[in-house]
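step: validate -> pass
step: tokenize input -> pass
step: predict -> running
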Amino acid sequence: MGVRLQAAVSAEVLNSLTVTATIGVITRGNTLVATAASWEDPNDQILTSITDNQGNGTYTVAVSATRLDSQVMLVQAYKTNVGIVTTPGTCTVTATWTELVNGTLQVVEYSGIATTPTVVTSTLNGSSTTPSTGVIDAGANPSTFVAAMTYNVGGPSTMTVTAGNGFSQLNEIDENNDAAALNVAEMALLAGAQGPQTCGWTIAPSCTWAAIGVAYSDTPKAVTQVARRRERRPSPFAPGRPR
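step: predict -> pass
step: emit ->
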């Protein structure tokens, strides 16, 4: 199964085209999953790219969603088989937008995700106290699930947010205690524990929200072949054997 090695979050930026988050030294062959959220921009928000300073190229967008009022864009992207180090040291991931946004970025490094993973997604938005990703059905594939939710209560808030349904909360980015925030949760499933999964949150008070869920299939286990022992038969010409 996927194993989280490290995670990092950005500060909440205001009126910026880019948002960055810096994690430690990454390991060659692992996977980086980046979740970006932007809000409070009256214009259409388009994510141009997510890249890093290690020469790993542009990340692949797995899924995106908007809130009911269209003010928030929530995006999750990933890059597998990382580790092309061009600047030795920490890894800085950058999300670039077409419009000035207020937003955040969260990055996680995982081992154990397939180099070319099967990616299954789900999105929902609504207005309630119970945000949900909807059903993420990875079938029989052992997978690592990464879910995210962003909300807006329309004013300053210190909301209580809890991730559930077997998911563990990784981060909640809301350092300014303002109208909006990003909450990221994860769950890794072992072989035999697959099936449809749903990440749900409880929040208060009720507000508009958007949620995304992504399942990344894990690296297949190598099949170990056991050599069959060849039975040795006695030679007909062995000493003492009747002829």
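step: describe -> The CA atoms of residues 54 and 86 lie 5 Å apart.
step: cleanup -> pass
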